[in-house]
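Researcher: Good morning. I'm working through a list of sequences from a screen, and I'd like to move beyond sequence-only analysis. For each chain I'm collecting a predicted structure so we can compare shapes side by side. This is the next one on the list. No need for commentary yet; just the structure.
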Amino acid sequence: MDSKRLRPYRNEAIKAVENALIDNKRKMMLAMATGTGKTFTTVCMISLLIKSSYAERILCD
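Model: Good morning. Structure tokens for this chain:
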């Protein structure tokens, strides 16, 4: 992942999701302020999950 494009709070959000997955949590909610790049952060997380073979498919509700 190109961490140069990720702001510190985006890296923190991705690490929080990774830690939740390590703790076997299956449901998570990402809450960020307007204009902080929620979509970009989510796409980065999905990309990491698929590249690492942790997930084959991801359903967003």
